[in-house]
Amino acid sequence: MIKTKFTKGWRPIVVLLLLFIFWEIIVKKLYVEEWLLPAPSKILSEAISGWNQFYPDLLATIGISIEGFMIGAIVGIMVAILLHLLPWVRDAMYPLLIMSQNVPIIVLAPLLVIWFGFGLLPKLIVITLVCFFPISVAALDGFKQVPANHRHYMLMAGATRLQLFWKLEWPYALPSIFSGLKISATYSVMGAVISEWLGSEKGIGVYMTLASSSFRTDKVFVAIFAIMLLSLLFFFVIMAMEKYFIRWNQKGGDTN
User: Fold this and answer.
1) Phi, psi of 158 (to 5 degrees)
2) Residue in 230, 174, 213, 238 with CA at minimum distance from that of residue 55
3) Per residue in 141-173, is it b (16+ CB within 10 Å) or e — as a string?
4) CB within 8 Å of 211: residues ≥ 6 apart
5) Distance between CA atoms of residues 68 and 100, nearest Å
6) 198-245 residue pLDDT tens
7) What pTM did the predictor assign?
């Protein structure tokens, strides 16, 4: 089983390596200008030589991504609990919750600057808006996954509504909640970059803006790959937490 997982884990890496090799060959053979599409070797060279310039922006984005993600996760779970425990609130607010996601963040961002200035608050609001919705929806779906016979047994035993929630519905919802957390963790990096476009002194979004305005496409690709790697890193961190906190679910449900 371990050997199979190890083999499968290498397949995406091989595909990426082949993609980069093909990319390198095409750029060299067709003599594509570097400002239009740099070769992977050029991007790697810029990432290494410009690391001292780039890593403060990287750290800034990591910091605000984590802060925004944690706030978004707390807000998302609290909203899901509120809507689940109070059906009349769910009926009134759930359509508005869905409608809130139809407003493009890139359009809402300038309004946040007007209302709250150029400080940290509008950036955290942007990331929170990006992160909380997947968590709320996943948690609400998870609360409904409780087997009917389990619910019936606890009600027969005299469990209160809160006891039913914390002892039965919450544990059963954890896999769904972690699914929402994994999605939101990847969105948090995107939200952080968008928030940095609002006006910031440092961050990957600032680095990318300066690079594109000076036609340094190699730096733009460095920023793009950094965003992708950060998103993957956050995803795997949440996945590791999921395996630790819901081992009971894996032992009971994993038949592979």
Assistant:
1) 90, 20
2) 230
3) ebbeebeeeeeeebeeeebeeeebbeebbbebb
4) 217, 219, 220, 222, 223
5) 18
6) 777 889 989 998 998 888 899 999 999 999 999 999 999 999 998 888
7) 0.84
The span from the CA of 208 to the CA of 217, in Å, is 9
What the block records as the tokens of 241 is 């937490």
Structure tokens at 126: 């942007």
Sketch the domain layout of the chain as residue ranges: 75-246
**DSSP string across 42-110:** HHHHHHHHTHHHHHHHHHHHHHHHHHHHHHHHHHHHHHHHHHHH-HHHHHHHHHHHHHHTTS-HHHHHH
> Which residue matches tokens 């309004």?
111
**CATH superfamily of this structure's domain 75-246:** MetI-like (1.10.3720.10)
| Tens digit of each residue's pLDDT (9 = 90 or more) over 2-17 | 455 445 667 778 888 8
Q: How far is CA 157 from CA 148, 149, 162, 172, 173, in A?
A: 14, 12, 14, 19, 21
Q: How many CA atoms lie within 13 A of 216 on its CB side?
A: 15
DSSP state for residue 168 in the 8-state scheme = I
